[in-house]
């Protein structure tokens, strides 16, 4: 018995674009067939994109997905992939409700269907809102290999379909995923795959989606692990890729068993597929990349796909001379090219000289479009009309900048980017309808201390490549200030950002109580002040633009807090 | 055997306010004891408020809820309610996770606990995100009545705890609810309670929360139905209320059974409670109210509680002279009193004379504060600075109004109200950071055709009461216009609102496809145009303020659509 060549197609589907996604699938399947693969594996819900959210509830959308799948099977057959087994995720619907399904396509038809069993309903996932769980195993035998199909969460919990497949008898598990990026997740994923492969005693081919969808960036990183944990191949992150792996036959194949408690078994045996003359494919393992590199790639991917998939061709952002807007501009240049990025300096009477020169330097080093629109005249018009002072005057400056960006967007069609970071958004250091203006907020989930780390990393990368570092040293080194009144500094009312971020991570990302955080060594007064600020700023976050999730708990779909909430420091222990 | 007096306490809890909610519970329990009730029933999660969203995941919050419950039991005992059975909803947490629980309190202690079994995970509900389901029945025998406890969704599906209680043997089911208002829901609730009472063969006491929490308004309407469907009592909607009902003993009490498949049984028998000298309480049935009355009350309740529970004392809104801002102002006056409402007329060069006079008339008829702030100077400052025309110039008018309101809010502490209706929000006829500015949007879920109906209803109510109708006839009768350019009318680019709303209801509220809507008799071109507009406006809705849900599918937590979404008319059948 020969090895089986399995291709993992790590593609970038677009939510709702059934014809486009099917064309993409057909094109990568064709490439896989040319590479001699007998089996091609696509990500979870590759036909519809992921997550489709409430589109999953619309019967007409589910019907269209099923129809697109059937047409895809025919297309594959006509384009010469008819004798390749293609496994692809799509949306199904039957009398029990909608299903997060995977289909096995062969010979121009849908051979078998597997419905996802474990439906994640936590953090960004709402699958029990949408899908009915499956309880039928799909086993397809080809060239002596029995292939079992599972979907994403199915392997994250013990129990479920993996031991059921092991009981039924399989030689390889195909796992379709739409697993979004967050820091450190790829190591977790690998250890999960390793554990399940060991439990099942067979290799697992794990293919993941790549690309951005609203708040999520899918990182790919598809891989194949042997039953003993040996890495048989790994795709790079954040790029479409075809990973081909030759899987060796089992030494001692087990027996088939159709009676598995709690499960039915849908079993198919295909005629032997011709193995074209090929040598063993070399093992391809993408090298690991540093954290900053992956975060940066997630930000670039999230922004690029939001812009392109929503039909924009350019972005505009305010350049304050500070680190946040500099990093957002650099991300935008990497995502879209400098010609698509329009920076606007909007100085006020409180703007320092270095804020203008740093903005100017950024524009020169990155080659983006740059213009200056002083806000004095518009601010004065409001101050005169309404006799503003104090906070109202501070806010009107930020809002005149927001209005200026929106007006330029209305005139030229740019998508406006908000440049706030996670630390600011957490404590409410953001002016609603001011600097919070925008269609997308690329670094909204990046804590301020990581913004600096990313800036340094990106500049170093430029040096290594022999390019001009994009981010001005002045923007990195100067103390952060909103410059809304004379000599204002962020540290006037906040602790240093390393302390702030350490507290925020515990409170926001890990739901720790004030007592827990104080016990970890932080000053009680500081912790209580920060926690109070976080709770009070929920209403601002509700109206903030969406942006790419990179931490374990992003504001947005990931962290859902009531606005009206009396659970506050002072009234009781938080 | 005597009748049992059951009190249903329909209270207005506040999310997170454990001490406040417990004080409220103790005070209503005390009243119930004085009324001679042996049993007092509070709503679902009355101790924590509902929904607590991700607070449910925070272990420190669950600990505090359990501790508050134990202290409440002691407080009740000390305040003379120790020999009253108090059943109250709270948040529990054990090794399986958080629980949506109901506790039976008696004699200063927690006697028994029931964990909600059916966890709704659809529309606005995410309970499988938060709670582990219970599988233990709680039966407390008092004065010969065996009381079973269920929570909300437990009675909405067949199966589950209701037949299990019937098998175990109970004489009365106590159902704790936090069931938010939507149009027509109260009839559905009653028929559900009727069905379950018939199935179980025992009466059901159904108590519901009242009050506003972010997007939700809870309408109360607590009721008791006999096994044969007889209405034994019904509380009014949208008011805190204590409903006392005397439940007659069963003629032929059944036997006890502790072996119920799939369930364990927690059974307690209390010493006989003293029945104080009282006559049978008269049957109290709140009369049914018309649809407009209930919708209006929901809007008033949602706004009032958002304002008060978030610590505001006043609101500001722009008065355009149109119907939307007039209705919002009238709702605000009913919710907060005229002295707490600040109307601002912000005329531009395109504003008609009648828009100013209608705004002025509204201010006079309602007695709200009123000022005029022309936007010409601020608009001109932007137009001159940025050389704006067309859409950019239209939008800057709306945005200068938004900035004006926010500046007044910053100066005086008003909560700004957005005045957009559901029809506009659906098709994107709203300027982001312009008329979309605000902390709360009272009529965002009210279709335009219903806005008119509400205005007429409210004016008629005023006439019946001998008061001045709040809404100027001119605002009701004139054709709607945004007045952002000369002679602009909404009907320039939209069908009549009755047609628009009929299409929107099918597409938005009921997820019908274009084909279905066309088949219902609407013009294909019109339907496709509307559907395209709805899909394209998702990004605006994401940043829109929250507002009270009144329809079967409100924008917000209730309808979750991706922003990036290629499932559009034209690319394929929607």
Give the arrangement of secondary structure elements.
The structure is a homodimer of 574-residue chains.
Chain A: E1 4-10, H1 18-34, E2 39-41, H2 59-81, E3 85-94, E4 97-106, E5 109-115, H3 127-130, E6 136-142, E7 145-151, H4 161-168, E8 172-177, H5 185-200, E9 204-208, E10 210-213, E11 216-219, E12 223-225, E13 231-234, E14 241-247, E15 264-269, H6 291-309, E16 315-318, H7 323-336, E17 341-345, H8 353-366, E18 369-372, H9 376-386, H10 390-412, E19 415-416, H11 422-427, H12 448-464, H13 473-477, H14 497-509, H15 514-519, H16 524-536, H17 538-542
Helix pairs in contact in A: 1-2, 6-7, 6-12, 7-12, 9-10, 14-16
How would you summarize this macromolecular structure in one to three sentences?
Chain A is of the alpha/beta class and 574 residues long. Chain A has 17 helices and 19 strands. The radius of gyration of chain A is 26 Å and the shape is elongated.
Describe the structure.
- Two copies of one chain form a homodimer.
- By secondary structure, the first copy, chain A, is of the alpha/beta class.
- Helices cover 37% and strands 18% of the residues of chain A.
- Chain A is built from 17 helices and 19 strands.
- Chain A has helices spanning 18-34, 59-81, 127-130, 161-168, 185-200, 291-309, 323-336, 353-366, 376-386, 390-412, 422-427, 448-464, 473-477, 497-509, 514-519, 524-536, 538-542; strands spanning 4-10, 39-41, 85-94, 97-106, 109-115, 136-142, 145-151, 172-177, 204-208, 210-213, 216-219, 223-225, 231-234, 241-247, 264-269, 315-318, 341-345, 369-372, 415-416.
- In chain A, strands 13-12-9-8-7-6-15 form a seven-stranded mixed beta sheet, with helices on one face.
- In chain A, helix 5 links the parallel strand 8 and strand 9.
- In chain A, helix 14 (497-509) packs across helix 16 (524-536).
- The longest helix of chain A is centred in the first third of the chain and has 23 residues, at 59-81.
- Chain A is elongated.
- The model of chain A has no long low-confidence stretch (mean pLDDT 95).
- At the A-B interface, helix 1, helix 2, helix 6, helix 9 and helix 10 of A face helix 1, helix 2, helix 6, helix 9 and helix 10 of B.
